[in-house]
Amino acid sequence: MAGVTAAFLAGWVGMSIADTGGVPARRVQMNDAAAQGAAGLPVLERGLQDESPLVRRAAARGLAESGAPAAVLLAAMDNSDLVVRRTALLALAGTPPGMAALPYIAKALDDPETDVRVMAARLLVAIEPREPAAVALMERVARDEAPEVRKITAELLAAFQPPECNVVPVRHRPDMADHLERIFVIESRPLPVEGWRLHPDLAPDGHVRKWFDPSFDDAGWIPARIGAPWDMEHVGVAWYRGRFAAPPRPEKLLAAELVFEGVDECAWVWVNGVYAGGQDLGPSGWNKAFHLDVTDGLRWNEENLVAVRVLNSLGAGGIWKPARLDILGFK
What we know:
Layout: H1 2-13, H2 23-35, H3 41-47, H4 53-65, H5 70-76, H6 82-93, H7 102-108, H8 114-125, H9 132-141, H10 147-158, E1 183-190, E2 196-200, E3 222-224, E4 236-245, E5 255-260, E6 266-271, E7 274-279, E8 290-293, E9 303-312, E10 323-330
C-alpha cells in the first residue's frame, strides 16, 4: 500500500495543483503529503505556488513539520503570503532560537509586513546568550518604523545591568580590618577638571553602544568639566568620558583607587574599557563619596580613559565634586 501511495504522489507532482480539485481538497492533499515525510516534500513545494493562500499555508506547515531543507524554507520566506513567510521563519529559527537563526531573522526584519517583523523581533530577543551580532540586530529593531516592532527591543536595550565586578577596595576587605592604620596614601592625583566630554543618553542605550570603550569616538560630545553639576537641563542618564595620567608604578604598591567625592546621584565607572564598579544608592547617593579599586586595570605611567555613566532623577546632576587617583601603600 505504501508503494502505491508513493507512486500516486510521484505522479501527482507532475500535475497542476489547480487541477486536483477545489481548495478544501487541495488542503487535504497538503496534509496527506506532509504525512509522507520526505516522500511528500515535492508535493508540498509545489503547493507553495498554489493560487490559494489557504493551500499555500497548509503546504508551509507541512514543510515545517516534515523537516524540509533550509533552502526550501528560505524560498518560502519570499512567498506572497505573510502567514507562509512567518511559518517558514519559525521553522528556520528553531526552538529555542540560537545564533544560527540570525541570518533568517535579519531577512525577516526587511519584510514589508509589520506582523512578520514583530515575529522576527520576538525570536531575536529569545536568543541567549546575546553575542554582538544579536545586539546589533536588536539596535536595528529599535529603529524600525513601526512602534509595535520597536518596543520589543527598546525596553530590553534600555535595561541596564552593571557588569560583574568582584574587586573590593582594600580598605573594605575583611582581611585588612585589623591593619587599616598601616595603609597610607603614597600619592594623590586629582583628576583633571577640564577636558571631559559629556553626552545625554536619551535611549538610554549607551552601554549597548559601548560608550565606555576606548575606541569609541566622542568627538561630537559636549565639552564638559567636573567638580560642578552638568551644564545642561537633563534628567535621566548621561555619560562622561575623560582622560588622566597615571604615575609610574611604585615599588611598594598596595592598591590604586579612583575616588569620587560626589556624583549626583548614581554612577557606574569603566577604566580603559573595563568595568570598575560604582555607587547605586538612588537619590540618597548624590553626596556620598565612593572608592573603586583600579589596580589591575590602570596603565601605569600612561594616559588612562575613564567613562562614567550617571543617573540623575531630579534637578541638576553629574560629577559635581572632585575626583582623584589615590596610590596606596602599606607601612
